[in-house]
Amino acid sequence: MPLIVKDYSWTQTESTVYLHVPLKGAKAEHVDILSTDEYLKVHFPPFLLEVFLLEAVDEARSSAKLGNGVALITLPKRIHRPWDNLVLSINDKQTMKAIRERALQAHMENTAVGRREKAVKKQQEKKYSLETMMKVLEQEERELIQKMKDEEREKATAEMEGWKIRHKVQTAVEEPPLKLTNGDTVKTIHQATRGCSVKPGPTTSSRAGSRKEQVDLPAPRSSGKIQIKFTPRAFPTALRESRVPEEEEWLRKQAEARRAGNTELAVELKDLNNEERNPDWLKEKGDKYFATGNYHCAVNAYNLAIRLNRKIPAFYSNRAACHLKLRNLHKAVEDTSHALDLLTPPVADNASARARAHVRRGTAFCELELYTEGLQDYLAALKIDPQNEVLQADTNRIRQIIQGCRP
């Protein structure tokens, strides 16, 4: 059962209510705040504060600030007037249950709307980025093709001009003077035939044929091969569809975790042999103990593996499974939360591990009767694996429990 927070304080003005809640050493990322116009809940395991407000507040303008071990919650009033008390005086469990259900329903609707808006915005940004990138690539490709065309055109023009020059020089050097019928001597055919008609004889035809055979044609273009190199990929997704920075950060974290080795080894672990200093070997031992139902020994094996290397999320997730079997529910919540902190950024390579951690933490919350928190974890797991029928059935069962119609 959660511990109820009673040492909070509140102040008010004509238009606003200020609520001060001590966090009792809890980190800001572990504090869950749910606020509607008539209900407020602050949950930081294992503590819980639940307030049924005296009058309605403006949910859209409500805010919360976390710092210095205190949560300051600002609730603008719908009607500007002083309150005699912060909490609505009710003892009817059915009324309290109805208020909780309305708050949960409103929170789920707001979350769904926000998720849809975020997904639409993200899709639009992705589409715009893709269109921009494709335009840039198309422009670069067009410029490259045009440049290649211009170079080929200039090369062909230069070869043709060189061939013309060589042909003129060779013709001028090799062509002898021609004799006309009246005995005049000329240097070229063009000069001899200017203004008159010339009937070439056999000698002229043979010389023309020899010149035609000696014409130099341009050499054929040389052939070649274009080498294409592909960027190596550690993940199976296409490069333009992947999340490269997040994937590289995940790989870097995994490499650092494996390099960590025995750097955090305590003084009392020096007597262990080489096999017992291997975290992977200890994890296999813990898995075997868990499979045979020896959960205490499995916890000891995972404890030692974590002392050797604190950056492997599987150690915490597996130890949480043992704590669930031993009914150490708060420890299970703590271990799964630590595993989810290490399973960042969320990529395809760690999707199954994240889903298992969410299910285990959701199960621990439900065993603690914190069904709202458990439902959130099951929804997160269902988002990762939407086709899992077992997850769908468990999620629907938790919803029924929250709504008061236990199957």
From TrEMBL:
<dbReference type="GO" id="GO:0005634">
    <property type="term" value="C:nucleus"/>
</dbReference>
<keyword id="KW-0539">Nucleus</keyword>
<keyword id="KW-0966">Cell projection</keyword>
<dbReference type="InterPro" id="IPR052004">
    <property type="entry name" value="Dynein_assembly_factor_4"/>
</dbReference>
<dbReference type="GO" id="GO:0007507">
    <property type="term" value="P:heart development"/>
</dbReference>
<dbReference type="InterPro" id="IPR007052">
    <property type="entry name" value="CS_dom"/>
</dbReference>
<feature type="domain" description="CS">
    <location>
        <begin position="3"/>
        <end position="87"/>
    </location>
</feature>
<keyword id="KW-0524">Neurogenesis</keyword>
<dbReference type="GO" id="GO:0043005">
    <property type="term" value="C:neuron projection"/>
</dbReference>
<keyword id="KW-0175">Coiled coil</keyword>
<dbReference type="GO" id="GO:0120293">
    <property type="term" value="C:dynein axonemal particle"/>
</dbReference>
<dbReference type="InterPro" id="IPR037894">
    <property type="entry name" value="CS_DYX1C1"/>
</dbReference>
<feature type="repeat" description="TPR">
    <location>
        <begin position="355"/>
        <end position="388"/>
    </location>
</feature>
<dbReference type="GO" id="GO:0003351">
    <property type="term" value="P:epithelial cilium movement involved in extracellular fluid movement"/>
</dbReference>
<dbReference type="GO" id="GO:0036159">
    <property type="term" value="P:inner dynein arm assembly"/>
</dbReference>
<dbReference type="InterPro" id="IPR011990">
    <property type="entry name" value="TPR-like_helical_dom_sf"/>
</dbReference>
<dbReference type="InterPro" id="IPR008978">
    <property type="entry name" value="HSP20-like_chaperone"/>
</dbReference>
<dbReference type="GO" id="GO:0036158">
    <property type="term" value="P:outer dynein arm assembly"/>
</dbReference>
<feature type="region of interest" description="Disordered">
    <location>
        <begin position="194"/>
        <end position="221"/>
    </location>
</feature>
<dbReference type="GO" id="GO:0005576">
    <property type="term" value="C:extracellular region"/>
</dbReference>
<dbReference type="GO" id="GO:0007368">
    <property type="term" value="P:determination of left/right symmetry"/>
</dbReference>
<dbReference type="Pfam" id="PF04969">
    <property type="entry name" value="CS"/>
</dbReference>
<keyword id="KW-0677">Repeat</keyword>
<protein>
    <recommendedName>
        <fullName>Dynein axonemal assembly factor 4</fullName>
    </recommendedName>
</protein>
<dbReference type="InterPro" id="IPR019734">
    <property type="entry name" value="TPR_rpt"/>
</dbReference>
<feature type="coiled-coil region">
    <location>
        <begin position="120"/>
        <end position="161"/>
    </location>
</feature>
<keyword id="KW-0802">TPR repeat</keyword>
<dbReference type="GO" id="GO:0007399">
    <property type="term" value="P:nervous system development"/>
</dbReference>
<keyword id="KW-0963">Cytoplasm</keyword>
<dbReference type="GO" id="GO:0030331">
    <property type="term" value="F:nuclear estrogen receptor binding"/>
</dbReference>
